[in-house]
Amino acid sequence: MMKLKKDSQKGTLLNFVGIAVLFAALLVFQQSSFASPYMRGILIQCCYVIIMVTSLNIPNGFMGQFSLGHVGFMAVGAYTSALVTKALVQVGVPYTGLPGYAMFLVAVLVGALMAGLFGLMVSVPALRLRGDYLAIITLGFGEIIRVIIQNIPIAGGKGLAEGQAGQPLIGIKNFSNMYVIVGLTIACVALMYAFVRSKYGRAIKAIRDDEIASEAAGINTTYYKVLAFTVSAFFAGVAGAIFAHRGLGTLQTSDFTFVKSTEYVLMVVLGGMGSLTGSIISAVVLSILPEVLRAFAQYRMLIYAFLLVLMMLFRPIGLCGTWEFSLLDTLRGIRGHKPKKPQAPAGVKREEVSEDV
Amino acid sequence: MSEQKIVLQAEHLGIHFGGLKAVDDFNLELCEGELVGLIGPNGAGKTTVFNMLTGVYEPTEGKEYLLGSCLNGKKVYQIVAAGIARTFQNIRLFREMTVLENVMAAFTKDIKYGMGRTLARSGGFWQEEESAYTRAMELLSLFGLQDKKAELATNLPYGQQRKLEIARALATDMKVLLLDEPAAGMNPTETAELLDCINLIRQKFHVSILLIEHDMSLVMKICERIIVLDYGCTIASGTPAEIAGNKRVIAAYLGEEDEEEGSVC
User: Would you say residue B153 lies in a domain?
Assistant: First the structure.
């Protein structure tokens, strides 16, 4: 009895070891000659992209409700948290050292909550639709959020009382401590993993597979859809907050266009709809790749498109399908235990569910 | 039968879509532990009756009661929570989820932990998960599916998919089970297995079952009462023996011998 709990505790313990190793590597990296501001910038970019893509995977991958406006929630999180730190600095809270990071975390939380609130407001009307219609309406909401931000005075120029509508928000403090941001990313991924591996995850996957059957299995589909969407928007808000404080000091609404949303959707699809592991891998690869391919920058979108076409032809379930990496299973695999993992057959394509009951 | 407790009751239930009367004046009294068959030619409105009983369609006329409380106007998941579960004519499983997850998804409404305990993995989260797992495995082993728990539902053979769908319906902890053509598309061996399966459910769970079925030998074998629908109207109801000899039923299925007018409704 209680095998599930024991397994999970073993896994958690192992994961803590894994995280410790990761931080040690980070420490080595910091000391090494590699650690230029440019490299740190890429690492931080990887972090917020990971949070964005994993959070987008919840509605798009796990729930099968295609959202195209996710970057709008990132924008809400970014601007809210930037204004929070600005306000706190203005009232005289010290922004260096430990109080600085406490302030940053408060700003992240407020930004994320605000994004979650927007997620809630958007999802209630939007999730009455599905498929292409939902994609269009979320796209519309994303753009609406962006245009609203562009037109409110406190979110432009120097911000708050001295703000000017239509200007980029400038003078945002730098909170790009790598340890804090990597830690935050790990925490976000862990929380999303916990969410997905629970009754909530089962309910939203059931909704993805068959909405009518999940109602008939006693699942309040509206509630779980709105909940998943809100949770997803919350974490997009965290990503936005990190983005705002990544050290450039400015935020402009052109950082949050529809093109950015599609890029994140692309990463979700490439990584595998319904695999957080896949999302992380594709987020890291597709954040680093453009930097490596600087010389061909103008062909980037072309390469993306080509990649996507290849993927759809040869592996439509994405890089990882619905598979999740587990340190425990991997170690057991090395020691010769056979992990019992259901593997989606390659080439599986979800059929459209007919609406006739 | 009459002294038994009535579980599900439908009074003059009817629905029309615009000018079309799909079902008219449908009456049902389903007693505890009873198995009632609902038969009729294609398009007679059998599945529409199911959809009304489960809240997919809002009936335009009449009332529906489960153990005395009115179910009209409730949403599908609320009716499931009240105690009516169903299966579908064309199997509707959560195809990309494992067999185990399919059953556990039906426990969603019974699992008590909230978001906080989910994210912290504490305060009874594992007890709840563990007990849901145990109950799911009990149900699966009842249908001989325990070895397939890690298999994706879509990879099961047809007969087992049917069983899984029934297992999922049972997992909602229902009082009334509505089976929509469970034997459709099955070969005789699978049908025989299904028959055993239904008998097992009746013994173990004391549920009342309403069964839509075209396989007459199955219906005649297991149903205690049969209701016959044609063009949305109830044309007969009674024991299998009565139904088998009923002229209007034979006429509805095979066509009429002499052109009698007005026997449709």
Answer: yes
